[in-house]
Amino acid sequence: MNKKRLVFDVEFAAENWDDFDEITQKDLMKRVPDKKLDPKGYEREMAYVKDQLVFSPLTAFIVAIGVYDIDTEKGAVYYQDPTGKQVDLEEDDIKYVPMTEAEILVKFWALAETADEFISFFGRRSDVPYINIRSAIHGIRPSKDLISNRYNSSKFPGALHWDLAELLTFYGSAMYKGSLHRWCRAFGIESPKGEMDGSQVGEYFKAGKGLEIAKYNVADLRATAALFHKWDQYLRERN
Q: Cα separation of 51 and 155, whole Å?
């Protein structure tokens, strides 16, 4: 029986600073200098604090999760629509479905139950921990363990997760690192980073551009799939 292999990618956006309670703001500002004594340092550090909010599931949320069957070349993106005006759409074998964050997570874990192998770029350290915590916050239990079994040993049952950011750096033993864009450039793959990149997701979300974020997510999915094929063909260990 053929195994189902699923590429996945997640987009995040930070909460609005003004929506945090006073205690949370003070906690986040512990290392920010006094505004009166060091106004330039204050502005610099506050900008840094706000930029870092998106990297924590405690201060940010999931905007979209995309999935892509690497063998059928069909997929879907489940995304939040801040305008409330978007409807289900299908283009080029990709479905775009507006949902709440909780609904997105329920759908992802339901799909995960049907898959045998998962493919990501930096997913083990970034996307999966984020998905797990946001799921728990919504009272949703993950259906698969996508963090353990880092080296994908055949001795361990369950899903296999191929994280290309780890595989292409030989699990951190190499002296180099690279973004998805740089890996795509090196391998001659069309980069997903064009008019939009991950740093702009929050800005696009605030502007009500949920569908644009979803379409950017598809570019990430397809680039990750193409990069996986390169690794699989030329670098994967053969038994």
A: 41
Q: Roughly how many angstroms between the first and final C-alpha of the chain, as a whole number? A: 19
Among residues 134, 137, 158, 136, the alpha carbon closest in space to that of 148 is found at 158
- CA gyration radius for the chain? 19
Mean local confidence (pLDDT), 93-118: 97
Q: What are 189's strand-pairing partners? A: none
Within 177-227, strands assigned E span none
**pLDDT surpassing 90 at residue 194:** no
Fold assignment, 5-20+59-234: Nucleotidyltransferase; domain 5 (3.30.420)
The model's pTM: 0.94
**Amino acid code (one letter) for 7:** V
pLDDT at res. 156: 67
CB under 8 Å to 32, separation ≥6 — which residues? 42, 45, 46, 49
Domain boundaries, the chain: 5-20+59-234
Tens digit of each residue's pLDDT (9 = 90 or more) over 59-97: 999 999 999 999 999 999 999 999 999 999 999 999 999
What are 223's two structure tokens?
């680039």
Q: Is 6 helix (H, G, I), strand (E, B) or coil?
A: strand
pLDDT score for 158: 67
Q: CA–CA distance from 216 to each of 5, 32, 47, 182, 221 (Å)?
A: 21, 34, 25, 17, 9
- Spell out the residues 6+ positions from residue 133 whose beta carbon is closer than 8 angstroms to its own: 57, 58
Distance CA 232, CA 152 (A): 14
